[in-house]
Amino acid sequence: MKTLEDLFEHQLKDLYSAESQLIEALPKMVKNASDSKLKKVFEDHLEETKKHKKRLEQVCDELKIDPKGETCKAMEGLIKEAESFIKEKKDDDVNNAGLIAEAQRVEHYEISGYGTAIRYAKELGHKDIASKLKETLDEEYGADDKLNKMAEQRLNRKAID
Ligand SMILES: [Fe+2]
Questions:
Q1: In terms of C-beta density within 10 A (0-12 exposed, 13-18 middle, 19 or more buried), how is residue 31 classed?
Q2: How far is the CA of 17 from the centre of ligand 1 (A)?
Q3: What separation in Å is there between the alpha carbon of 160 and the centre of ligand 1?
Q4: What distances in angstroms separate CA 113 from CA 18, 23, 53, 128, 140, one per listed residue?
Q5: How far is the CA of 151 from the centre of ligand 1 (A)?
Q6: What 3-state DSSP class applies to 143?
Q7: Residue 2 — φ and ψ, nearest 5°?
Q8: Domains and CATH numbers, the chain
Q9: How much is the pTM?
Q10: How far is the CA of 59 from the centre of ligand 1 (A)?
């Protein structure tokens, strides 16, 4: 890796791997969430994640690079953590709270990755690519926001009980 261009390519491949892994993992989150609103948040984000992967394919196509070939070890770890949490015995409320926490870790990781990729794209003069990646970043922020609301609602319900 010698240039910022190389680093940018690495970031894009890392994100591509992260999104691909998340497409495999989100259905398990949907299946395991017992709260219908939380299920819906995961389902909606699964559809968005498929779009994110497509956008990265388009970006890589424009740059004439292959998006495949790297494994995002960080996402692999986050998903492993979520999977082992799912396997543990716990009550519904704790389960949903934990799923929200795991999903927010994933979103924050992606937010950081896209933020970096957008900065590099701008620095390298790829204005259109930067704005395409920004669309994804906004959706990641949106998903995180919904998860925050879910976590707060849970707390509010607790206060009423
Ligand atoms: Fe995404």
A1: exposed
A2: 11
A3: 34
A4: 10, 17, 14, 18, 11
A5: 20
A6: helix
A7: -115, -35
A8: 4-158 (1.20.1260.10)
A9: 0.94
A10: 14
